[in-house]
Amino acid sequence: MTPSTLMLTSFQQGLLNWVPINDTVMGGLSQSRFETIAGEGIFSGRVSLDNSGGFASVKAGLSQMVPLHNFRAIRISYCPDGKAYDIRLRVQEEQWAHIAYRFTLPPSSGTWQTADCPLDEFSPTFRGRHKPEAPALSSLTLSQVGFLISQRQAGPFEFRVRQLLLIGG
């Protein structure tokens, strides 16, 4: 029997290894980091548009792969800073491992919120371009989670997260 919810991470120190991937991979100057403090994940830094830059991200591989066929959404408890952020998911299946499935959280500021992000609304992308040939996320096996700030949102940023759950359906 599949549980109705499954915690992906509780944001305790050392539970997952969060790795920054910024526009520096293509010459940009953006910087980011991910810290876990008192049960919160804090993705922060500065996005720079210099040198054709404009994004910062972090990712973490899951300790266990999760088949998504019995789940309908990801529930996130978060506190944004007025900027738009993406949840990014990657899958285990080798043919689709280069695809990032992306869900954009609407910009809002300063208050804790909880959102259910339907798996069927995650958009498959590769280097920012939509990939309609990719299969539905719900048919695949989750291997990695991450967060991204882009869309030319220059300046300092801070995105706080308390909870990331899979919701059954």
Automatic annotation (TrEMBL):
It holds the Pfam family CIA30. Signal peptide: none annotated. SUPFAM superfamilies: Galactose-binding domain-like. Residues 13-161 form the NADH:ubiquinone oxidoreductase intermediate-associated protein domain. PANTHER family: COMPLEX I INTERMEDIATE-ASSOCIATED PROTEIN 30 (PTHR13194), NAD(P)-BINDING ROSSMANN-FOLD SUPERFAMILY PROTEIN (PTHR13194:SF19). Belongs to the CIA30 family. This is CIA30 family protein. The lineage of its organism: Bacteria, Pseudomonadati, Bacteroidota, Saprospiria, Saprospirales.
